[in-house]
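Q: What does the assembly look like in three dimensions?
Context provided by user:
Components: two
Sequences:
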Amino acid sequence: MSDLEEVQRQLAETKAALAAIKGKDGTVSPLAPSSTYDIFTVPGVTLSAVAAEVRYTGRDDVMMMKLDSGSTIAGVFTKSATRSAPVLWCENALAQLTDSNEPIGVIANAGNSNAFTGFAGEESTKAMAVGTAEALGTLPERVFVASTGVIGERLPHQKIEAVIGKLADTLDPSCWSQGASAIMTTDTFPKVASVQCEIDGETITISGMAKGSGMIAPDMATMLAFAATDANIGQAALQTLLNEGTAISFNAVTVDGDTSTSDTLLLSATRQANHLRIEDAEDARLADFRNALNTLLRDLAHQVVRDGEGASKFIEVQVTGAETNAAAKKIALSIANSPLVKTAFAGEDPNWGRIVMAVGKSGEKADRDALTIRFGDILVAEKGWVADGYREEDGAAYMRAQDLIVSADVGVGNGEAKVWTCDLTYAYVRINADYRS
Amino acid sequence: MSDLEEVQRQLAETKAALAAIKGKDGTVSPLAPSSTYDIFTVPGVTLSAVAAEVRYTGRDDVMMMKLDSGSTIAGVFTKSATRSAPVLWCENALAQLTDSNEPIGVIANAGNSNAFTGFAGEESTKAMAVGTAEALGTLPERVFVASTGVIGERLPHQKIEAVIGKLADTLDPSCWSQGASAIMTTDTFPKVASVQCEIDGETITISGMAKGSGMIAPDMATMLAFAATDANIGQAALQTLLNEGTAISFNAVTVDGDTSTSDTLLLSATRQANHLRIEDAEDARLADFRNALNTLLRDLAHQVVRDGEGASKFIEVQVTGAETNAAAKKIALSIANSPLVKTAFAGEDPNWGRIVMAVGKSGEKADRDALTIRFGDILVAEKGWVADGYREEDGAAYMRAQDLIVSADVGVGNGEAKVWTCDLTYAYVRINADYRS
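A: Here is the predicted structure of the complete assembly.
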């Protein structure tokens, strides 16, 4: 081999090593769902998406949803003390919501979160609501506004106002995927899900979309999700169902433990289905609906994790044997948020000592000498020490899978919880350290 | 330029890019203190260090400290529910401690933390205590044991027992740095500090050592620190002083938010100084000593952060205007532990939106529209929005420094706190994802 060939070979090798660390830009997450979803249309719901060039060019970045007369809506929002103007607007709109004949509107943009923008933020939000209300023939206070993207930059809402007419003119029942694409920021794939169930023998549809790509993505602050059903459910019952479902879906996932200033989850019911209205979330007729809703929310939440920044592994953390369910969830989140646990997963290292550490630091009660840890079905540790039959090579082989289950029984009670997370990779650092530079 | 030269140039460039990402192995942290410390010997304290090859070869890995008759000792330990056998031993020893004529011993090893090792862990700890007690002519319950290193592997305590005689034979007042080197794991430099002060006109010395290199390092679980003074202070007062000092030093630093199963901080007083014994921590004669002790603890704690895994920036986070001091500390830790904030620092990105996010997610009260953020002296944001005079290039220039100060006034009260942290770099992921593989 000539000198030139040898140096060329070394260059190729070094470039490959560099690429492996830096991760791939512009490609879809390796954890993206492999099959495409059939999205059922929801009677009474139409959507549209257009390009307003708020920040991005060459792609749609504003989404509109119209919910016909007779609809109601429920919402869950970030608890952040520094939540954005659109979140405050939506909270207020929800508090004032009455049953009326006017439709309900949703307008959402990507590229600028309109968070921490002072009075200008309120102006921009109001302008979006007023413009949408006029176009949809409703009142501004019946329009829900969401923005996702950079924090602290004034939102050029004129660009959005300029496309509201086009959005209203192109509303269509089948535009769920287009809507999901329009609200993407650092997301690498659009997130949609759709389920059907029955209430009183009637077929009911629930469809939804979400965007991540962290509980907060970098400057791209936000997790947004919008879902709708034709079920005939009263507002209070709908809100209760959404609260319950959120606790075991969106509030049980974490990418980096950072909470967005803009997190918004809306669930509307157009109430066009032919069953009698249900006003009580505990109504027995809701059993199937509740399951279907929870499935849909969990599906969307998992997609957010599967598109977590830099993610190469999807991890389910199961905790049992805690004092209460709440304690179990706190321990599970302690594991799922631990940088040391997450980097071990990235390195495919069956490092169960870090699970022990994360259980210990949670602040919840655990019996060190009754602690059991499993990777999938592999018993790793029990009774305060490594399990007799455990072989490191079995743990290492398990870690090479893309979807992992880690379970810990902490030996003090009957509380249990599941949460979902992804690993912490070089690519997470790259995306978040290099984004604005 | 020939083809060969051109390809060689490209190879050199690519290798440099790879090296920049991968970080430097075997080199000292760029944040290490540049000057060497003068370590004052402490009357009544002798130390030694030898190689027992617990895990490492070619270096000392066991440290012994002897505190002469008349000494007392105070301790602070991890609150982890899965704390190690040595921690449980020390807590018990401290609870039983009486004033007696026997000396006090400390024995610490690196390479194996003896954590989550079941009954075998207790055996190993006891063996180390018994061996040390025999060599020093004291009781096992007057020996404090600390271990740092891999979790979940049985400690080969026979290797340590085999060198106890040599440790006892080579005790020397000046071996602080050797002791600090012997307890290093992923640390890149030994951490020592020494101060002098006065009590009742007498010169008093406090010297100490610590190891990191995170609140928990990877498998290398532990922050250990040992300090000693010749001050004549009663046990209860010494414990109070240590508790107070820990709150504003070791308990105000974070590398990754992960809490070790082995964290141990011991402060002994040989009581050989010529002032009357002080039994009350509130005694006015302790004013200078208290300052000196806090300075020493903060110095050691800062060194731990400066050797944080992969650290390239040392960051002081100041929070003012919170409801209480405790609320301020919680907000400061929310900023200091945020992966998004820490990666922004790594990327030298003056991303103040992430500071807003971290304030918001802390769970403590903050007034979004009164929030003020500064990078050093640069006013970045105020009254809920970017400051009028702020220029992004000023923020970017500030971020290029190695030592940074970020301050946030949250506008609701008079509570304040300072915490210290480092950035989150590629090298952190490398160290923690790749360590065992």
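Follow-up: Chain A has two domains: 45-306, 314-434.
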